[in-house]
Amino acid sequence: PESIAGQRHANMESLYDYGSRSGFWRLHELLLRKNVPCTVFAVGMALERNPTAATAMIEAGWEVASHGYRWWDYQNVSEDVEREHIRRTVQIHKDLLGGVRPVR
User: Which helix (H) or strand (E) holds 65?
Assistant: First the structure.
């Protein structure tokens, strides 16, 4: 369903909260224990809000690919906004992931 401007979506907020608080760490531990390589498609804003997880990804030797700045469908976003989000995401990757650009 489409989001409604100005209204929160409790179900999605709950999913995102679980992921950053518990879900990520459960998968992190499992993949490390089983010695499974991993590529994470990370949203820039999520990395920005959870730098501890970003550090854990790098320390685990995982490849971190960019999945944009927000979890948006960029089809109808203006080019200027999209370019700004790309710029911000590249900077977040450099700042939080050891000075490297996102994997393309």
Answer: strand 63-66
